[in-house]
Amino acid sequence: MNRLPTADAPLRVLLAEDQAMLRGALAALLNLEEDIEVVGSVGDGESAWRELQRLAPEILVTDIEMPGLTGLELAQRIQRHGLAVRVVIVTTFARSGFLRRALDAGVAGYLLKDAPVEQLADALRRVQGGGRALDPQLALDAWSEPDPLSDRERQALRLAGEGMSAAEIAGRLHLSHGTVRNYLSEAIGKLGVGNRIEAYRLARQKGWL
């Protein structure tokens, strides 16, 4: 465990992770670093959004899949609102499609959960210093296969994969039934599959959802 003394104030970090045991372990391990302070930890994206505004941490460490608001959606919201916080994603999803979307959302770090905590601590320092911290193999793979889906196609396909009908998706997204059908048809065509369920599975496998 790195214990680098510093005259500066510690790096203030907010954790967003829906698995309570992992969240607690990460907080405990990061707090062992003399130059890092975990100022809060939450279990879902909406809570993370509220705590970001209340606590104003320098770095958000977030998972991707969380209830209500995913880590990627949270990063996109941070980018839209111009919050002065850098985002580091720590996830089990070793999918280049997720990394591409994360980079598009302004994420500064993307690491896998099987990395040692020392690597995460070093990544947080690098990100705070203005750099990036990306899993090297994913960074190489990220540009090999571009994501063909638009944001609306992605939203419609995700809800279809959750079992919603086109009419239900239309109500959720405040779109017309015909528009939703068009989005789903476009996604199916782009992915070269036979139906929306196959499209959902392939997009999930590629990390595009």
TrEMBL record:
Signal peptide: none annotated. One of its GO terms (biological process) is phosphorelay signal transduction system. Residues 12-128 form the Response regulatory domain. Pfam families: GerE (PF00196), Response_reg (PF00072). SMART domains: HTH_LUXR (SM00421), REC (SM00448). GO terms for molecular function: DNA binding. The modification 4-aspartylphosphate is found at D63. Keywords: DNA-binding, Phosphoprotein. The keyword Phosphoprotein applies. InterPro entries: CheY-like_superfamily (IPR011006), Sig_transdc_resp-reg_C-effctor (IPR016032), Sig_transdc_resp-reg_receiver (IPR001789), Tscrpt_reg_LuxR_C (IPR000792), WalR-like (IPR039420), WH-like_DNA-bd_sf (IPR036388). The keyword Phosphoprotein applies. This is Response regulator transcription factor. Residues 142-207 form the HTH luxR-type domain. It comes from Luteimonas deserti. It comes from the Bacteria. SUPFAM superfamilies: C-terminal effector domain of the bipartite response regulators, CheY-like.
